[in-house]
Amino acid sequence: MTSEQVVSRVAGAAGERDENGSGQDASEGYQRGLGNRQIQMIAIGGAIGTGLFLGAGTAISKAGPSLILAYAMAGLVIFFIMRALGELLMYRPVSGSFSDYAREFLGPFWGYVTGWTYWLFWVVTGITEVTAAAKYVQYWDKSIPQWLSALAFTAVLYLANLISVKLFGELEFWFSMVKVTAIIGMILIGIGVITLGFSDAGDTASFSLLWSDGGFFPKGIGGTLMTLQIVMFAFLAVELVGVTAGEATDPKKTLPKAINTVPWRIAVFYLGALVIILSVVSWTVFEPGVSPFVEAFAKIGLPAGAGIVNFVVLTAALSSCNSGMYSTGRMLRDLALNGQGPKFFGVLSARGLPLRGTTVSAAFMLVGVWINYQWPGKAFEYVVSFATISGMWAWIMILLAQLRYRRKADRGELPQSEFRAPGAPWTSLFALAFIGMVIVLMGIDKDSRVSLYCAPVWAAVMVASYFVLKARNPQAFARKDYSAGTAEKAAQVEQAA
């Protein structure tokens, strides 16, 4: 293939470049208001949420110290997924992200399903997070109804997303800063308890607690495997950095940096934190539905510390819900621009925000208020499983799209990405197999099996709506030729390069 042909293909795939040469389609219209500082914190904060702060309590009770191994295994897979996403982002950074890549490399149907499923994932996750946040408020005052807190948090975060993408970025920056600072502080305090022996837990705290109470695998390897659904839920939202591509000031530089921080984020914030907590307090102390971080500080004898940690996990839940508000509006607009969703969602506000999609999504999240009113004790468990299966769909599409892109790039049909995934395609195939194993385990576990009952219903809705919409507007669901660039666009790409 000649250099002119490759340039033409790049131009067709990327659309007209903006003045920064970032590769954003000029028709998207978003304002590039997310700087490097904010992107890095969004990437870090995306991996630290309710799944770690609240869900880890249930996982510890099921697996004991071997939960550390489960997080390590899943963390490796997450890194493979993120590098696959990074390869696609450097090929064509757009706000539609994996939905757009599924549309290009797998076909219009898969882009349609991915866009709507990811929207559903964040709506369900938003419900999960406001539920968790409402639980945390009851730590201080049990008389406050859980549904009332959920309603208040949903309203405040919705209003914050009405102002600007910069405000969203600032909120996420400070939410993430609180989480990062707190976890590092907890790790340091825990190390002090273990090595210096201060506090009520000082006499018993020891790294030997990782194997002394029933061994490292007290519930057997099977118990460890059965926690993988909870573990994978904890990592959901790491892919959010891909959705920010359309609004990052310099995606070619900021996104690879954010993705490459994944290994140390997992090592410090998950593995490091769990090793310290389980060395300070025996795993037998922790109970389902209770944050192990709050419980650990209470057992240490630092009630004020437990209150501080409760505030931190509250901010973690609100951070995730804030991300949900952000991403749902972008995903609905991407569907609208491609004719696969109502045109109503395609309009941007004067500030460059997809407020219509955000508003409708926030309205759906209010279902969480009703769930908290009806079943305050079971609300969190009811929605976690379905959030996991819908979120993992996005990961599957990322991996499949990256495999298809890599084959085309290796044949010279498309330019090679500047950020190639190491070990691909084998790492991507391994990640797909791992996700498949987790889905099978979810079917075995009676507590998470409900999500597999819901998934076929959602699939049926997607297939039926696809054929109805395709019959009404065949052009919107026709496969696009992303390689058909004009000479004018090719010249722009050469200039930008």
TrEMBL record:
GO CC term (a single one): plasma membrane
Main location: membrane
Domain of life: Bacteria
Transmembrane region(s): 41-60, 66-85, 105-127, 147-168, 180-201, 221-245, 266-286, 306-326, 353-373, 379-403, 424-444, 450-469
Keywords of the record: Amino-acid transport, Cell membrane, Membrane, Transmembrane, Transmembrane helix, Transport
Compartments, record wording: Cell membrane
Domain Amino acid permease/ SLC12A: 39-470
Pfam family, one: AA_permease
Membrane topology: Multi-pass membrane protein
GO biological process annotation, one example: amino acid transport
Disordered: annotated span: 1-28
Record-stated family: Belongs to the amino acid-polyamine-organocation (APC) superfamily. Amino acid transporter (AAT) (TC 2.A.3.1) family.
Name assigned to this protein: Proline-specific permease
Gene that this polypeptide is encoded by: proY
